[in-house]
Amino acid sequence: MGENKIYKIWVVEDDPVFKTSLEDLVELEEQFELVNSVSSIESALKGFTSKPSPDVILEDIELPGMSGIEAIPFYKKQFPEAAVIMLTIFDDDDRVFEAIKAGADGYLLKRSSGDEIIKAIKDVIKGGAPISPAIAKKMMSMLSGGNPSLKESPLTKREHTILKFLVEGYTIDMISAELHISPFTVDTHTKNIYRKLHVHNRSSVVAKAIREGLV
Amino acid sequence: MGENKIYKIWVVEDDPVFKTSLEDLVELEEQFELVNSVSSIESALKGFTSKPSPDVILEDIELPGMSGIEAIPFYKKQFPEAAVIMLTIFDDDDRVFEAIKAGADGYLLKRSSGDEIIKAIKDVIKGGAPISPAIAKKMMSMLSGGNPSLKESPLTKREHTILKFLVEGYTIDMISAELHISPFTVDTHTKNIYRKLHVHNRSSVVAKAIREGLV
DNA sequence: ATGACCATACCGGGTTTCCGGTATTTTACG
DNA sequence: CGTAAAATACCGGAAACCCGGTATGGTCAT
Fold first, then answer.
1. Which of A3, A7, A53, A94 maximizes the CB count within 10 A of its CB?
2. Average pLDDT in chain B
3. Residue A8 contacts residue A54 (beta carbons within 8 Å)
4. Residues B67-87, buried b or exposed e (16+ Cβ, 10 A)?
């Protein structure tokens, strides 16, 4: 952000009360300008040609007619630079996931405060992804779900530690710094891991480690 | 939250300057009480028996000695009710993922403001997962890019072929020979794959390809 | 106390990767 | 038919890897 640029905002929200709140919120910020506010996807699509291009689109996910999620690709196609923030009542797993897949840039609960919504708009402009904490929780559980069995390996404790870093793409120098040991030592461990796993390069060691559950 | 309960906070941070900032921040809030502030995992572990149990643990991820991530399971075992918020300088994909897997409840950039950190603590107490917007961005890309069953790869047919060889540990020259194309071409494809998958070395591309079911 | 193993550390040199370019031909699609 | 995307190809420099060595201090069990 930094300078004095005025950011153009679109609002797509069918509930008249909440729509008005959003409008007020946006208009009270000096650096924002509400250039289009509609109550359905269909009306929003009409604005593609007649309204100023948005920098940020605030869109309700629970809209009559076409779902707010389905509309995202259209926005993205027409305005590739625009950020889309979804607003929702429910922190529903599937919806969150669908919206993220569709390319939403942020995901807020409607019960968020005005300040939080303003902050969210500023965050997306800065390239971040504002997410309500409750929704972030869902995302985290989705991410962490499913890391099964570890297996017995012929590697020593230290080698196993090194292996984990190798799999994460760390270079020898990075591992050296991380573990506070000489890069030469890391190199030695790496060679020993290669020998024990019968491989001869990074790619193979990573593939083997993951496939055999060594990490 | 609601009532008058005082929440007990632990701080684990090795940088003395930032540590002091955190301490001040926590102590200035009436509903928080700083009950343990240390500069290493080892010291934190010692506090398990001697210090009051925490409701929230603020922990630097880049600590000397044992990694902040490795420590999470210990906290969770000893204090199942405590929420762990990780603090980091880098919004690094792999770290975020590792920390989430390990059970972190929140993930903040150190450049966050004092207000944001306080709000984060309140958020975890309410059961949310506070995440810096920049980190949420990473999580979203991991989610949207990271579901084997629901996702088509962004790679072209040829890139996908090359990727399979990379995962098998082939060098560029070997792939070049196998496909009867110039090694320069293989190099170009490889670079494009890296760009599309947001990685910068062989190890990472192999790990990502296997974990996301791209091969 | 004496191997066996582990973790540490160092060296040199050839090989390969990684990156940022540029550029041409082929293919697919509206 | 035109054009966007994909596939092909090339260059050079910096960085990282891979290997075959050697070597030393610590731990642990026989």
1. A7
2. 81
3. yes
4. bbbebbeebbeebeebbbbbb
Instruction: Report yes or no: A132 at the B interface, CB cutoff 8 Å.
Output: yes
How many helices and strands, by DSSP H and E, does chain A display?
A: 10, 5
pLDDT bracket for residue B66 (50, 70, 90): low
Q: Considering only CA atoms, which of B10, B30, B31 is closest in space to residue B22?
A: B10
The residue with tokens 């309500």 is A132
Domains and CATH numbers, chain A: 7-144 (3.40.50.2300), 157-211 (1.10.10.10)
Whether A198 sits with its Cβ under 7 A from any strand D atom: the answer reads no
User: Which one has a higher pLDDT value, A206 or B152?
Assistant: A206
Question: How many residue pairs bridge chain A and chain B with CB atoms within 8 Å of each other?
Answer: 129
Q: How large a percentage of chain A has pLDDT more than 90?
A: 19
Half-sphere exposure of A206 (CA within 13 A, CB side): 26
A89 touches chain B (CB under 8 A): no
DSSP code of A31? Answer: T
Q: What is the pLDDT of residues A45-77, one digit of tens each?
A: 888 777 888 889 999 887 766 677 778 877 877
Phi-psi region of B32 (alpha: psi -120 to 50; beta: other; left: phi over 0): beta
Instruction: Work out the number of other CB atoms within 10 angstroms of the CB of residue B30.
Output: 8
